[in-house]
């Protein structure tokens, strides 16, 4: 019931808030290990979130874990989505992050793995070659939080508002946005927690 009502009861990435103002905050995220998959939604029946099941199978969220140990890996939040860069395989972590690329519509979705995995080599290797596990270093983001359904239109509006606010205050944006969603799809929309994040210097 808690998940339906928006309660976040899983591990989330560690960060320090380095600046806060009325319409956003700047966070410094600690290094983490992620599992990710890059895909073109058109190849998965147009499902923009089609990478979720691939990653869920890797950690064993829905049954036998699809990794070499096999070891069940705890789900974390958020799920991260972003535009795909040049093809590159990346490790799974939590949250799940998804991005989409300007070239070909490819999307990268990430799960941030639990903090007990401090290096990618410590996490079990995936059986599905589409899943990449990798380490990510410390990263600084401008972040804005919002509720509701994270449609493409809503997300892009939030990203542009955040970009304008960051530039207004002298922060330099150094990359594409990331969408972080903290709740499963059955959570009531007004109780969902979403964030858009822009990397800053």
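Sequence proposed for the structure above (201 residues):
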């Amino acid at each position: 019931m808690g998940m339906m009502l928006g309660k976040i009861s899983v591990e989330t990435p560690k960060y320090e808030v380095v600046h806060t103002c009325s319409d956003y905050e700047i966070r410094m995220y600690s290094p983490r290990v992620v599992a990710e998959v890059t895909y073109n939604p058109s190849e998965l029946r147009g499902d923009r979130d089609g990478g979720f099941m691939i990653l869920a199978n890797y950690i064993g969220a829905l049954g036998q874990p699809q990794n070499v140990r096999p070891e069940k890996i705890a789900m974390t939040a958020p799920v991260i989505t972003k535009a795909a860069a040049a093809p590159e395989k990346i490790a799974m972590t939590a949250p799940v992050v998804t991005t989409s690329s300007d070239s070909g519509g490819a999307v990268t979705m990430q799960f941030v793995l639990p903090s007990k995995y401090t290096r990618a080599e410590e996490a079990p290797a995936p059986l599905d070659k589409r899943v990449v596990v990798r380490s990510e270093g410390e990263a600084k983001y401008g972040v804005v939080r919002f509720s509701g359904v994270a449609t493409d239109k809503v997300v892009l509006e939030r990203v542009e508002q955040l970009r304008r606010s960051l530039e207004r205050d002298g922060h330099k944006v150094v990359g594409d946005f990331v969408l972080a969603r903290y709740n499963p799809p059955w959570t009531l929309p007004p109780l969902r927690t979403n964030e858009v994040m822009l990397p800053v210097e």
